[in-house]
Structure formats: structure tokens, C-alpha cells
Amino acid sequence: MTLEEKASSIKFKKKISDYDALWEAFYSISNQKYHKHSRIHKRIKAMFERENLVFYTLTLTDETLCNCSLEYLKRMAQEWCSKYLSHYVGNLDFGVDERYTQRPHFHVIGNYKIKPSFDSWKYGNLDFERTYNNNYKGISHYIIKLSRHATKEATSMLFRSKAI
Questions:
Q1: Which of 2, 76, 84, 101 has CB 3.0 to 4.6 Å from 116, enough for a Cys bridge?
Q2: Which pTM value belongs to this model?
Q3: Cα first-last separation, the chain
Q4: Which residues face 84 on adjacent strands?
């Protein structure tokens, strides 16, 4: 929804200028994003208080990228997380390496319930690193970095477990 569409959908008790309607729409969208990020920070902080917290990177092979949509891959990442992790927050990121620019991959932080094997992610490589310090703010900022300055499509690539 664009800012103008949001502004036109807001119902006011009295007539206000178009400028005020745009400002109200901007404030509403900014407020929603702030609260979403705040909830993710709290969720990740709660995960740090539990055992078996690991940061995962789920990469994608060239064949997978050619044959599958990003929405489908997001669903597969969520299914993988649901199978192996009790609590998780993840996102789609677009990294840069020497051969490929803007190559998609997933970052996930979660508490594992079943230790995943290296070949459990069949769409590419699985990399992981245990988290030993309590830098939940740094990790949560890293997970939501794309949605801070992204388009609507990219912000929908955040995903999380249902409850914590």
C-alpha cells in the first residue's frame, strides 16, 4: 500500500488537509514498523535466555535459484525451521560475494529441538555458529536490517515461530 493509498483510507472526524492525511499515514506506517521491530527484539532476547541457541545461514544452489521462487523457498525455510527449531526468527538476505551480486540466502536464529545435520537443508548449504555472548540487540538488528529500509516485498521475507 502506498502512502497516498494509506492516506485516502484513513477516516477523519473532521475535514483535514491532504498534507495532514499524508502525515498521518506516514506516522501510522512508521509506528507499525517500529512495533514490529520491537516485538522481534523481545523475541530474540527471550531466545537468548533459553538453551541451544544457534545462528544459521541457509544458502541456495544455482539450480535451486533457477527452479524455485523466493516465496516457495521461504516456505521451505520455515518448514525446515519448524522441524528442527523450537523458537526461531529468520529473514531473506541478499548478500554479495565475488562471483554473484545480491545472491539470496536465509539467516535464522533459533533454539534447536533436534540438532540438524549438514545435509538437512536440501536447497543448498547449511552453515551455523553457536551464540555464546548475549548480544541479542546486534543479532536482532542484523536479522531485521533488510526491513529497515526495504520495499514491502522484502519486509514480508521476515518469518518467525508462532510462540515463545
A1: 84
A2: 0.71
A3: 30
A4: none
Reported as a single tens digit per residue, the pLDDT across 56-109 is 999 999 999 999 998 999 999 999 999 999 999 998 888 766 666 678 889 999
User: What residues form DSSP beta bridges with 104?
Assistant: 94
54 in helix, strand or coil?
strand
- At position 161, the amino acid (one-letter code) is S
Cα Dmax for the chain = 61
- Please name which of 122, 124, 131 lies closest in space to residue 53, comparing C-alpha atoms: 131
Start-end of H helices in the chain: 3-9, 18-48, 62-67, 70-84, 136-148, 152-155
DSSP run (H or E) holding 160: strand 159-160
Domains of the chain plus CATH, in order, are 3-43 (no CATH), 51-160 (3.30.70)
User: What amino acid occupies position 23?
Assistant: W
Q: Which of 131, 158, 146 is nearest to 48 (CA)?
A: 131
Which residue, chain included where needed, has cell 529500509? Answer: 149
